[in-house]
Design brief:
7-stranded parallel β-sheet, Rossmann fold, alpha/beta, 7 strands, 10 helices, single chain
Amino acid sequence: MRIDGSVAVITGAGSGIGRAIAVALAAAGSSVVVGDIHAEAVAETAATIGGLTVAGDAASADGVAALLDAAHNAFGRVDIFVANAGIAGESGLGDDEAAWDRIIDVNLRAHIRAAKAVVPEWLERGSGHFVVVASAAGLLTQLGAAPYSVTKHAAVGFAEWLSISYGDKGIGVSCVCPMGVDTPLLRAMAESPDEETRMAGASVTSAGAVVDPDAVAALVVAAIADGTFLVLPHPEVLTMYRQKGADYERWLAGMRRFRNSLG
């Protein structure tokens, strides 16, 4: 994918990884449309990069349509879609059924709805690139938070399916799986009044370095340009993933020990 001169849409761009990706793509020559449910925050992102802003819920079909309509009206097409919006959800098993529905919508169905909207156009053109911002939790797991772990596993699975189904038809797919990134989401976990949520945050920060969102964004831009699927801001995740597959029982026992060590 040639980034200079492309048109990119990024969800969850009001802060954190989404904002950093928007800045990086704009710097690389993309015309950028940014979306977020937090109108003031995403307007700041757009002002920083000279992009267009659409405030709304990227988990809804209407929210996706609003972003794509803005891009088509201003630039005539969409070349890159970065499905970045995500939430942490409840801790433990997640007692609230509505909260389960919400995190499935944001962390999974948002990707599906976006892909359903852009893939037909890209198939006609024979080009396009879809970025799923998932998590190392989607390759490994997330201690203390079943909803987050389950939806990130599903997001990775959907990205794999997209690549297998359309990778020979001109459509690139990248799946971003970081561990700790210095974002409002991770800080909120660390400062949560809920003990299980704080433990979940501690499991992330103690497993490896907490990296800056700009570092993640640089890798994402490179992956789009190179057509790389798996983006690992923490390279050690690949070692952990291989250990998991090599001996699942041992890995599960080790994760239980790790959880116990965190209290």
